[in-house]
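Appendix C: a fully annotated inverse folding record. The material below is reproduced so that readers can follow the format used throughout the book. The structure is listed first as tokens, followed by the designed sequence.
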């Protein structure tokens, strides 16, 4: 056994960890069965990595479809304790850094803001954005191949 205050201690705060846990559960239920294809070329990939910006520690969930990506970085804001989300379409091989996420957006502020403790509200927003992105990419692909 391990001390509770050390468990899951990867540097991200509890709100980011809670959003990630919520996304992990809901993604399986809401997205995976509907969108995953057995054909590797058409498969939707969803990966997660750490988001690091000094005191702002969280995660980046990346949805990949063919050669395109959309990243959802979420973390507790260092000054307000709110949960904020950045959305970026920058192309990366690894988890995007703060510079890749922030600069790809023209240096503008965060895309979404949730008050302290709004874990499920934040998670549901990210899920809806993920689903919308996947639907758009699948539709674009159908239009390209004339299906």
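Designed amino acids, in order:
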């Amino acid at each position: 056994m391990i001390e509770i205050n050390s468990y899951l201690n990867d540097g991200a705060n509890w709100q980011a960890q809670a959003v990630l846990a919520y996304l992990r559960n809901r993604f399986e239920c809401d997205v995976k069965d509907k969108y995953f294809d057995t054909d590797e070329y058409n498969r939707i990939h969803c990966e997660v990595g750490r988001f690091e910006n000094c005191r702002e520690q969280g995660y980046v969930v990346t949805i990949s479809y063919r050669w395109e990506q959309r990243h959802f970085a979420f973390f507790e804001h260092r000054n307000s304790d709110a949960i904020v989300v950045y959305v970026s379409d920058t192309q990366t091989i690894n988890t995007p850094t703060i510079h890749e996420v922030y600069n790809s957006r023209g240096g503008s502020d965060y895309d979404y803001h949730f008050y302290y403790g709004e874990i499920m509200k934040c998670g549901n927003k990210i899920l809806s954005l993920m689903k919308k992105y996947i639907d758009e990419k699948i539709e674009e692909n159908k239009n390209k191949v004339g299906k």
